[in-house]
Write a structure and sequence with these properties.
By secondary structure, the protein is of the alpha+beta class. The protein is 43% helix and 16% strand. The N terminus is likely disordered. This is Helix-turn-helix domain-containing protein.
């Protein structure tokens, strides 16, 4: 990945999901998974229910963090 380019469009185009537990590990909160669960319940962290399991929607999260292009 080129420096300064950010995430590649293919990440935004695909459906990339991780469990709340894995997301907590990725952001350094592996021992405080309840925080991630609270973010999901409050709607602060985008998620989807797939096959009865709640997953963090990484593509939606990336879109939320992109600067406004207006």
């Amino acid at each position: 990945m080129k420096q300064g380019r950010g995430f590649t469009p293919d990440l935004l185009a695909g459906g990339y999901y991780v469990t709340p537990q894995r997301f907590a590990q990725l952001i350094g909160l592996g021992d405080r998974q309840a925080i991630v669960q609270r973010w999901i319940e409050q709607g602060d962290l985008p998620s989807r229910c797939i096959g009865g399991q709640t997953l963090v929607d990484l593509a939606a999260l990336l879109l939320m963090t992109q600067p406004d292009q207006s």
